[in-house]
Each structure stands twice: as C-alpha cells, then as structure tokens.
C-alpha cells in the first residue's frame, strides 16, 4: 500500500504530466533503446517512429497518476495492456529496467522540478503498479499455457495457404509445425508474429487479428500490405509477408490474446462496422455469431476505398445469402468502374440513422480518423457508451477529436 504522503505527491504531478507526459515518454524510449538495444526485438519500431507508443505510454502514466489512490479503477486498462504484454512475451525482469529508465526520463525533462521527493514517490508508486502488471500477466501466461492446445512463449507455425483477398490484402492460413492441437480463442482476438526479415538487425513483432471464427485446425490472419506512401516507409512485416513469405514458410507465433472480444451472451441486435483492413476482427465476430446465435439480428457495414481494395466481399455476400438475419452494406469512398455499393463517400449520420437500431451492440475497427467519425455518429444517435466497443490496431489512442 502507498502512504498518504506518496499519494499526495503523485497527485500533485498530474498537471505536469498532462503538459509534459509525451516529452517524458519520448525521452524514456530514447534512453531505453540506447541502454538496452536488445529490447528493440520486442517493441514496434514503426510505432516509435510515428510517436504512437510514447503517446500511449504517456496516457497510461497519466491515468496511473490520476487514479493513484484507487488503482483498482485502472485494472481494466492493466488487463488490456497485459494482454499485449503477454503476446509480446514481456517478462517480470523487464519491469525494473523500465522503471529505472522512466525515472531518469522524468529527471531529464522536468529538471529541477523533479525533486528527490517526487522521484522517490514515483519510484514507490511504480513498484506497486509494476507488481499489479506482473501479477495480472502471470495469470495470463498460465492460462495461455494450460488450456487445450495452448503454449507459453513462441511456437512455430507454417503457412499452409496464402489467399489474395484484394489488390492490397492477403490471408495467411497458419498450422502448427509440430502437428499438434491449437488453442481456441474469442472472436476479435489476435495472434502475434515475430519475424526477422533478411537484412533486418532486430526481430519485428506484429499483432494480427484472427479473421475466421474459432474451431478450425488453423489460424487465419488477413494482412494489408503497407506500401511506402507520402514519406511514410513501407511496413516491414506486412511487405515481407506479402512479398517473401510462401506456403511452407515458418513463423514464430504467441498464443491468441486481446480484450476486444464479442459478447456472445448478449441477445441485442449486433452492428459490426469496419473500415479497410479493420474488417478482420469483424469477420471473425460475424462468422461466430451466425454459427452460435442464429436468431440474433446482425448488421455488417464495411467501408473501403473501392472494389479492388475490398477484401472478403464474396465471403460476406455468401454469408448474407445463407443467413436472412444478416443485413450487409458496402460503402466505397471512390468507386471504380463496375463497382456496386450501397453508398459512395463515407459512413455518415444519415446513413446510420437509416440502417441501424441505436439499441444494438456496436463493434467497430479501422483507421483512427474512421473510428473517430463512427464514434461521434454513435454518440449523435444516443447509443449508450456501454454498448460501444472498438479496437485500435497498434498502441491504444483516443477517439476524442
């Protein structure tokens, strides 16, 4: 337990963290990788370069400071982050390194304002928070290892099939190299791949949503090739998978993880909304609900740039033809010749008012600007917040404009 004095000191730093949080976490990552370059085998380099990871960590540190006197309030966040930590094989011995580096970054950015009292209070608080993470993650490792077909750490899978879904998206069907059973998962969860493309100094880890319902003898991931555009470099892992990984290629994989999962106990109408490759967890959810809740009304809305970039469209058409409780809508931003869709441009408030029941459960995923727009529209039609669920691809961000 933290002393009242420590709690008061941590609380007093909240305004400072609100202003300088991202500067502190940016300095943190710079120091971390300078002193411990081996950790570049774990962290997503692209998220560092784009500033997503420092921003996400700054939010987490800020939340911890705000709720330092009621840490139970951040347990849901701890569990969400813990899922990603378990998927990345973050271990207890990493936490002291992180704590030492975070305190050093605070001193560097805040200068004389980082008094010994403040640093000591944060050191004490970090120890308590780290223990919470380590405890939660220990349970997750245990659960992943002990369930049927489960495992701890990395397991080798091989590509059994490679299916082109659109001009930029390909599905990969993965089976265990050892021929054994594979762990089940909840619709919406992901697996994590660790690859080391030729000429790369470090391993690269990427989370990929499972894009099929559980119950198959394989895991299916559906990956968009992230090409270089507008000065942004190409995605290291996605381009390697598309251009170099073939049937028979072996991949290191951690067991399914993730907290963005479909509530299969709800009987409310279900609305699944996706943009681009954000459809991957949505397809898993859709297939699952059609199998296990055949009477539940489902609306599936997908937005893509155009028909040639629309993945799995034939699969969804086939599902809709077999399941009368499913209504499917397609929106193309810039349709190409011959494209057929229900709306051109973007999903907007008028479209949602015409197609969905505000009393439904809503799940959505896609690029952050897309999700911000959808989230705002759902607020406008007064969907209760506890019925709104979404997933960030990458570090958690915010949908506030």
UniProtKB/TrEMBL annotation:
Its cofactor is heme b; FAD. Keywords: Detoxification, FAD, Flavoprotein, Heme, Iron, Metal-binding, NAD, NADP, Oxidoreductase, Oxygen transport, Transport. Binds 1 heme b (iron(II)-protoporphyrin IX) group per subunit. Binds 1 FAD per subunit. GO terms for biological process: cellular response to nitrosative stress; nitric oxide catabolic process; response to toxic substance. Its EC number is 1.14.12.17. The record marks 84, 391 as: Influences the redox potential of the prosthetic heme and FAD groups. The keyword Oxidoreductase applies. The active site is at residues 95, 137. NADP(+) binds at residues 276-281. CDD domains: flavohem_like_fad_nad_binding, Yhb1-globin-like. It catalyses: 2 nitric oxide + NADH + 2 O2 = 2 nitrate + NAD(+) + H(+); 2 nitric oxide + NADPH + 2 O2 = 2 nitrate + NADP(+) + H(+). It holds the Pfam family NAD_binding_1. One of its GO terms (molecular function) is FAD binding. Belongs to the globin family. Two-domain flavohemoproteins subfamily. Is involved in NO detoxification in an aerobic process, termed nitric oxide dioxygenase (NOD) reaction that utilizes O(2) and NAD(P)H to convert NO to nitrate, which protects the bacterium from various noxious nitrogen compounds. Therefore, plays a central role in the inducible response to nitrosative stress. PANTHER family: FLAVOHEMOPROTEIN (PTHR43396:SF3). This is Flavohemoprotein.
């Amino acid at each position: 337990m933290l002393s009242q004095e420590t709690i008061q000191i941590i609380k007093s730093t909240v305004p400072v963290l609100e202003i300088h949080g991202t500067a502190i976490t940016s300095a943190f990552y710079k120091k971390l990788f300078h002193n411990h370059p081996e950790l570049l085998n774990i962290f997503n380099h692209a998220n560092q370069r784009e500033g997503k990871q420092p921003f996400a960590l700054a939010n987490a540190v800020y939340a911890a400071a705000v709720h330092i006197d009621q840490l139970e309030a951040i347990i849901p966040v701890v569990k969400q982050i813990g899922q990603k930590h378990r998927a990345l094989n973050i271990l207890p011995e990493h936490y002291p390194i992180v704590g030492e580096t975070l305190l050093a970054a605070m001193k560097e950015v805040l200068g004389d304002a980082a008094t010994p009292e403040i640093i000591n209070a944060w050191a004490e608080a970090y120890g308590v928070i780290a223990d919470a993470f380590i405890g939660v993650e220990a349970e997750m490792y245990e659960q992943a290892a002990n369930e049927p077909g489960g495992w701890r750490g990395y397991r080798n899978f091989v590509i059994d099939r490679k299916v082109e879904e659109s001009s930029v998206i390909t599905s990969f069907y993965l089976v265990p190299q050892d021929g054994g059973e594979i762990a089940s998962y909840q619709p919406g969860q992901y697996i994590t791949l660790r690859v080391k493309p030729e000429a790369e100094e470090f391993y690269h880890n990427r989370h990929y949503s499972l894009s099929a319902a559980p119950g198959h003898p394989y895991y299916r991931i559906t990956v968009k090739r992230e090409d270089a555009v507008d000065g942004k470099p190409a995605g290291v892992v996605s381009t390697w998978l598309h251009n170099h990984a073939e049937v028979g290629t072996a991949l290191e994989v951690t067991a399914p993880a993730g907290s963005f999962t479909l509530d299969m106990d709800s009987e409310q109408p279900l609305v699944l909304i996706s943009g681009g490759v954000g459809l991957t967890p949505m397809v898993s959810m859709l297939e699952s609900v059609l199998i296990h809740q055949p009477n539940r009304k489902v609306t599936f809305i997908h937005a893509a740039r155009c028909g040639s970039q629309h993945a799995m469209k034939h699969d969804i058409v086939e599902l809709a033809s077999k399941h009368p409780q499913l209504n499917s809508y397609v929106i193309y931003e810039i349709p190409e010749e011959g494209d057929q869709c229900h709306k051109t441009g973007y999903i907007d408030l008028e479209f949602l008012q015409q197609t969905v029941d505000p009393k439904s459960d809503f799940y959505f995923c896609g690029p952050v600007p897309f999700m911000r727009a959808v989230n705002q529209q759902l607020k406008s039609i007064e969907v209760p917040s506890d019925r709104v669920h979404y997933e960030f691809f990458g570090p958690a961000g915010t949908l506030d404009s």
